[in-house]
């Protein structure tokens, strides 16, 4: 039976524990990897008081990795984008950006959503804020001259703007968990970010979503809502974060803050969309029509099923299957939110719902991994698990391009169908593995690396340390051996950092 009785949460922090968590002191994989740059973080190292603060270091690393990703695209930049299709796949440097400069009318000065395009797609098929981003980059691109040079210039203009987004993303993740700023290095060093950031414009929505999570962690629900609304105006997936927030606010009784966030998100989304919706309705709805009518495509579980069974899954049936699976995922998320022995952290549930959307969607483009990177880092900041997942994603990144090379070269070079299907399965298993680790942390909060220093929900804002007002199942039945007034998942022993029996000093 549900319980409406208020339960305590660990609001009091132990004395002397408000110090920065250093991954090389806690994480064996991080410690081993640090040998490449001189070894683990030392006692006498600068701890944010000098010029090289964590935020500055991570921002510089993120920019450096982004630049390496640009270098990886050099074969395409120099020639492969303009000399047939196979070379850009065999060099794994494909990008939508230069091709859409002419393909979506930017080279001809057409106005997105207002001017009709030729071909099968009558209007730009991107959300409004992304369309504005694309248009701004077109304004920065010199006109005239050779078409190939213009496409190169357009890609460079976009890359410069997207690099800013990458830096914002890394900084926001770094600042979200106050005591764990160095976790932001996982975002900055993520190979999938460097490889996919300039394929499309997804990192704009990802950066806005990370900024929204930062604002929520600071107890600013209106700013969170506004940024989340802007992110949803750039890509659909950020709106999914309102579901886990609803569940957690229901458990903690934070209805006013949730309502503020929803109003902020709706208002910001309307401010961006309403002018285009009213003045160019046909162009505005193209994104939604394209998403609805799109066939089962690369990387999805539906393509895998279709290829293995030899049957075509029509778009309307794939939409229905995906919707049903998302409903199942939402029910599972609600069960976790209300029955977990300790209220889950916001980013844990946010990661799970976005991962469910990625796993059930009709298409999995390589850059969609960007949606999960910041949420994965905040939900499960363990280098081993993150790198296992990233390895799977890098294999998929290479697999899709080699498969496209195979199909576009007349089956002469590249990866055949069976190899590509293996890459899809590896991507699915890698994501499911990380989901399983997050669920384990929710069900056994003492294993949660973020909570091992006594924190409750550093990204939770008003939820951090809040009392529960609605729980059910296991959460409503404190263990008999727990201390009076504490729930089973809230027992924390405050030993010294040298004691391996206590969470502060025990490596996982």
TrEMBL record:
Signal sequence segment: none
UniProt topology in membrane: Multi-pass membrane protein
Stretch list, region Disordered: 1-21, 474-508
Family: Belongs to the glycosyltransferase 87 family.
UniProt name for this protein: Glycosyltransferase family 87 protein
Protein's UniProt keywords contain Ion transport: no
Coiled coil segments of this chain: none
Species the sequence originates in: Streptomyces wedmorensis
Chain intervals with Polar residues compositional bias: 1-10
């Amino acid at each position: 039976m549900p319980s409406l009785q208020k339960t305590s949460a660990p609001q009091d922090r132990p004395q002397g524990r408000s110090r920065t968590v250093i991954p090389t002191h806690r994480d064996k994989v991080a410690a081993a990897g640090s040998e490449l740059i001189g070894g683990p973080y030392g006692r006498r190292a600068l701890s944010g008081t000098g010029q090289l603060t964590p935020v500055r270091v991570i921002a510089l690393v993120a920019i450096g990795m982004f630049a390496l990703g640009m270098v990886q695209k050099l074969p395409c930049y120099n020639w492969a984008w303009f000399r047939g299709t196979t070379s850009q796949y065999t060099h794994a440097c494909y990008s939508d950006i230069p091709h859409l400069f002419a393909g979506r009318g930017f080279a001809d000065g057409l106005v997105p959503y207002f001017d009709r395009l030729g071909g099968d797609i009558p209007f730009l098929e991107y959300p409004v804020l992304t369309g504005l981003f694309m248009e701004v980059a077109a304004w920065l691109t010199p006109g005239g001259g050779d078409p190939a040079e213009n496409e190169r210039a357009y890609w460079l203009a976009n890359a410069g703007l997207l690099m800013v987004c990458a830096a914002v993303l890394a900084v926001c993740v770094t600042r979200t968990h106050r005591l764990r700023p160095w976790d932001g290095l996982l975002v900055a060093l993520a190979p999938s970010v460097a490889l996919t950031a300039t394929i499309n414009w997804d990192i704009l929505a990802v950066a806005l979503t990370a900024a929204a999570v930062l604002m929520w962690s600071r107890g600013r629900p209106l700013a969170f809502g506004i940024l989340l609304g802007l992110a949803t105006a750039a890509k659909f997936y950020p709106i999914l974060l309102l579901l886990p927030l609803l569940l957690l606010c229901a458990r903690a009784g934070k209805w006013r803050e949730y309502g503020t966030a929803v109003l902020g998100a709706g208002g910001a989304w309307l401010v961006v969309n309403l002018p285009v919706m009213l003045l160019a309705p046909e162009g505005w709805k193209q994104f939604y029509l394209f998403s609805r009518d799109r066939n089962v495509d690369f990387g999805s579980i539906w393509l895998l099923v279709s290829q293995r069974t030899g049957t075509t899954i029509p778009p309307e049936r794939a939409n229905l299957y995906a919707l049903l699976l998302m409903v199942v995922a939402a029910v599972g998320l609600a069960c976790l939110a209300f029955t977990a022995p300790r209220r889950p952290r916001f980013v844990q549930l946010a990661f799970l719902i976005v991962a469910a959307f990625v796993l059930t969607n009709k298409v999995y483009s390589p850059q969609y991994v960007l949606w999960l990177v910041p949420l994965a880092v905040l939900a499960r900041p363990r280098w081993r698990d993150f790198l296992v997942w990233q390895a799977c994603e890098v294999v998929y990144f290479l697999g899709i391009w080699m498969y496209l090379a195979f199909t576009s070269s007349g089956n002469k070079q590249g990866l055949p169908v069976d190899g590509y299907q293996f890459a899809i399965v590896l991507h699915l298993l890698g994501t499911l593995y990380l989901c399983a680790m997050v669920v384990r942390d929710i069900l056994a909060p003492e294993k949660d690396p973020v909570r091992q220093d006594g924190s409750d929900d550093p990204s939770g804002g008003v939820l951090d340390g809040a009392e529960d007002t609605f729980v059910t199942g296991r959460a409503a039945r404190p263990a008999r051996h727990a201390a009076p007034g504490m729930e089973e998942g809230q027992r924390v022993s405050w030993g010294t950092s040298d004691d391996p029996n206590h969470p502060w000093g025990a490596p996982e």
